[in-house]
Amino acid sequence: MARDILKAKLDIIFKKLFTDDGDNELLIGLLDAILDLPQGEKIAEVQVTKNELMPDTPDGKVSRLDLNVKLQSENDKAENKYRLINVEIQLNQRSDYADRALFYWSRLFSGSLKSGDAYSELPVTISLNILGYSMFPDREKYHSVYVPKEEKCNDVLTDKFSLQFFELEKLNHRKTNLQSKKERWLRFLNAETEEELDMLETAQDKTLDKAITKLKYFSKDEQLRFDAISREKFINDQASLERSAKIAGRAEGRAEGERRKEAEILANLKAMGLSEEQIKQALGK
């Protein structure tokens, strides 16, 4: 029988795993695995500049993980540069998510420019979006990277813009590749049973093993399990309410459209000089 664990992709658990204790080893391990840094380039240092569950609606009832990281590779340190990373987790589908990701990327990018700085000093800014659903269902690959390119000749305008999307749901339909460090860490985030974690441990990834041990330990904490269940239920309930509201809105829109169409037909029939009785017959009433 599969033994349930806390889900690392749940925002409150992700935050506790990777940032709350001030030890950045696991965060470096995750970013090193999923960022696709050039061959031989290693992360030398990360600094968490923002790590909060921020209100995502005007009433403050819905929150989102707001995790911003200042990262330096060994090459960055040598050149006195850094990169800004924004990590977002979205478990349920949102039709406006691409716009939202772009908005938070732009806010982080523009906010890094201090008074008197040259535009050339703006850092490489990367938005990492970890999704619990398939945002691009027509593609098999689970990692999509967007950069600004010229429409015809495909030239990249700048390396300072990157929106990346990791679709965890697609991992459920792929054969596991433990040779891929990126896939190992994403499967860790997506894991829901202890058996899945045991399978990942066979890859003998030292930093990932530490994350697995930590998650297993957290999973024995009854209060944390209660908090996680409550948080997940709230997220799912909110998504259900949003879907219901959209369905109701579409139904109301159709009804309004039908009312307007009937009013237009009625006005045209009256303009033609038809009697009330003739109009009723024409409308089938």
Overview of the structural elements:
- The chain is of the alpha/beta class.
- It folds into two domains: about 10-220, no CATH class; about 220-285.
- Helix content is about 45%, strand content about 20%.
- The chain contains nine helices and six strands.
- The protein has helices at about 10-20, 25-35, 75-80, 95-110, 180-190, 195-200, 205-220, 220-270, 275-280, and strands at about 45-55, 65-75, 85-90, 125-130, 145, 160-165.
- It has a six-stranded mixed beta sheet, with helices on both faces.
- Strand 1 and strand 2 (about 65-75) form a beta hairpin.
- It starts with 10 loop residues before the first helix and ends with a helix.
- The model has no long low-confidence stretch (mean pLDDT about 85).
SSE topology:
Layout: H1 11-18, H2 25-34, E1 43-55, E2 63-73, H3 74-78, E3 83-90, H4 97-111, E4 124-131, E5 143-146, E6 161-167, H5 181-190, H6 194-201, H7 206-218, H8 222-271, H9 276-282
Parallel strand pairs: 3-4, 4-6
Antiparallel strand pairs: 1-2, 2-3, 5-6
Core attributes:
44% helix; 18% strand; 2 domains; six-stranded mixed beta sheet; 9 helices; 285 residues; alpha/beta
